[in-house]
Amino acid sequence: ETNLIRENNGLPLLLGVMGDPILHSKSPAMHMAALQATGLQGSYLPFHVKRGDLRHAIQGIRALGFRGVNVTVPHKVEVMEYLDEIDEGARYIGAVNTIVNDEGRLKGYNTDGIGYIRSLKEEAVSDLSGRKVLVIGAGGAARGIIYALLLERPAQVIVANRTKESAMQLAAEWAHLGNITGCGLEQMGQYISGVDILINTTSVGMYPKINDIPLDSEMIPEGIVVSDLIYNPLQTEMLRQAQQKGCTIHNGFGMFVYQGAYAFEYWTGRPAPIEAMKSAVLASLG
Ligand code: ATR
């Protein structure tokens, strides 16, 4: 190819993802497709970085002139210690999944929550303002989603978690950001009536335990929006039950694509080629 765009002082644009495990990450296929569709010369590589090596791996971004990286499990929290600056959203969430290198100055972002919300708005509910939302789970994924959700001015967010205390704690911590209430899973029934959107952020229903469901399906109100962050399988038991009740269903596939799309836009300043990215991920899911 002769007309590839070179952005890194004439060198290829260097990108990658650090995690442990990393072998099955779909990010390299997705971002290589994005680079190609945009006409940028560059590479996005998977790096198997173990816990004790993270500090040095991050130093390596500067030394080698990487424009940016994604960080994934188990590094999203620890990596914050090694950055020069952290975006406000990522600071609230307490986790970074995207690093941008501006001439040696590393800034961390979290694109998971905003990626999820962009996907939810494009595929299921265009306007989240004034909606009542029930989120199951209060872990890392839930924090990202709830933070991004609160920016959309919902009427109320209820966080239901197996460990009730962490849901209560999160609701207290973010009370200044909106109307947020914490409860235990057994209290979900008290809050579910009038809910417009139900979101599962837990791993319940993930492969290989694909028949598990995070709530009694009888509790799901008819005709609402039901979303599961899981994308393996694409259709979880919760979504199957919801569909039978006339609900609009939404899975985590778009979240994965859009968290990558935001990262790509931060690194390159160009609009992410969404369709090319989706096709690459679908192909790699097999
Ligand atoms: P993630 O980054 O995927 O959110 P996490 O931070 O470990 O991972 O959070 C996992 C979430 O799934 C938590 O809300 C967890 O509930 P607890 O806080 O009680 O641990 C929830 N979870 C995991 N397994 C679950 C199960 N079998 N039933 C109900 N909730 C579960």
UniProtKB/TrEMBL annotation:
Residues 252-282 form the SDH C-terminal domain. Residues 17-99 form the Shikimate dehydrogenase substrate binding N-terminal domain. The keyword tRNA processing does not apply. InterPro entries: Aminoacid_DH-like_N_sf, NAD(P)-bd_dom_sf, SDH_C, Shikimate_DH, Shikimate_DH-bd_N, Shikimate_DH_fam, Shikm_DH/Glu-tRNA_Rdtase. Keywords: Amino-acid biosynthesis, Aromatic amino acid biosynthesis, NADP, Oxidoreductase. Homodimer. This is Shikimate dehydrogenase (NADP(+)). It comes from Paenibacillus lutimineralis.
